[in-house]
Amino acid sequence: xxxxxxxxxxxxxxxxxxxxxxxxxxxxxxxxxxxxxxxxxxxxxxxxxxxxxxxxxxxxxxxxxxxxxxxxxxxxxxxxxxxxxxxxxxxxxxxxxxxxxxxxxxxxxxxxxxxxxxxxxxxxxxxxxxxxxxxxxxxxxxxxxxxxxxxxxxxxxxxxxxxxxxxxxxxxxxxxxxxxxxxxxxxxxxxxxxxxxxxxxxxxxxxxxxxxxxxxxxxxxxxxxxxxxxxxxxxxxxxxxxxxxxxxxxxxxxxxxxxxxxxxxxxxxxxxxxxxxxx
Length: 279
Fold this sequence. Notes:
This protein is of the alpha+beta class.
């Protein structure tokens, strides 16, 4: 069979990227947002009724519906960006810095989407809708503040959902790995693996007590998902390390790190991933 093969585990294959299912997270966000929008719309109706203001009953409903339509359309994009540029991949500081342009774009797109829906709704009622009402900067600031809060809540939900999914998947990582390499089927406990390194369309598996790495067809992302416990962390974009085998960490002049393992071997880590090693 040569070097072909990959991870199947003793119970099946890798099911895809690790983390919470977007469908469940999205459903939770929809329910939460609908509840908040219902409270907002009814609050406006009650306040205007008590004040005797001339406001059509459908206007607050349209305002909230237009907002949630835009939010629901943007939510999948935010989820994809969060997964691609998550704190575990970038590090906390780069992740937070990236959120500034993303939240600005999120707010502008949300405002544009809800304004379009409101224009359509008011047009069907034979009325004109003016978003700025002569104070466009103030209206943008007002909506922007709310969008920052909404964006922060969504990111928080994604983070909590991933942590819950990781805690549920952790027991599976203790199962043995089935690796097909060099015409053989080999089984390893996760704790035996020192590190896994990407090598083109293959990965090199470095196992304690074995001087030579096992070359197996697959991707590092597959192994990261399969070994996704607290012990296995990225220390480089092409290197996944078992922290339980770390014996010493030395920071270089460039800010990168050199990690000494339990068998005396040294491997390099990128400064982008220093936080995973507690540096």
